[in-house]
Write a sequence for this structure.
């Protein structure tokens, strides 16, 4: 459970540590606002993406389902700065379909944790594979990381691309190369 009072106190200390007055009019409510923001940004810590994905309904087998350009936002666990971008997700049903909004919701749950993009990509693929018992899953995330854009190397516009392919997708009738071509819009 997220401790808002503890976060607010820590932020008051950070404000003091940078040489500012935490009681100054513009900063007085900042610790509370940051605590509320963290409760929202880290709400995925208290949720299970598998619960969202379970269920589904009977559907056709062997026909791929692909969602492109699903926006997501997360916080890098190394600097607590945002990274954001789009996800492309595909799966080959094994007789069960999941509502497409459920895939987007599972992505949000996993992204709303202190995260690294590589793990987020892997976790989403594994959750879909487990929950839907798919014949294969592919996930591609493309994101810009503010820790690379606004500090350190300072390279705005750089996109990080991560890929996870799971299950027999690799050897089935719908190949990895076909999935990657479709998510790239070809």
């Amino acid at each position: 459970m997220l401790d808002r009072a503890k976060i607010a106190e820590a932020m008051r200390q950070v404000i003091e540590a940078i040489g500012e007055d935490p009681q100054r009019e513009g900063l007085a409510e900042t610790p509370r606002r940051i605590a509320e923001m963290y409760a929202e940004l880290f709400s995925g810590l208290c949720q299970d993406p598998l619960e969202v994905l379970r269920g589904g309904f009977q559907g056709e087998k062997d026909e791929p389902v692909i969602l492109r350009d699903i926006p997501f936002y997360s916080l890098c666990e190394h600097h607590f700065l945002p990274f954001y971008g789009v996800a492309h997700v595909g799966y080959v049903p094994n007789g069960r379909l999941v509502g497409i909004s459920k895939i987007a919701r599972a992505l949000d749950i996993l992204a709303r944790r202190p995260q690294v993009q590589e793990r987020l990509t892997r976790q989403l693929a594994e959750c879909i594979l487990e929950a839907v018992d798919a014949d294969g899953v592919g996930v591609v995330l493309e994101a810009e990381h503010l820790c690379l854009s606004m500090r350190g190397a300072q390279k705005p516009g750089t996109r990080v691309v991560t890929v996870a392919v799971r299950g027999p997708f690799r050897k089935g009738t719908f190949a990895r190369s076909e999935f990657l071509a479709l998510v790239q819009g070809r």
The radius of gyration is 19 Å. The longest strand covers residues 65-76. Helices lie at 4-17, 30-41, 49-53, 100-111, 117-132, 146-149, 176-183. DSSP finds seven helices and seven strands in the chain.
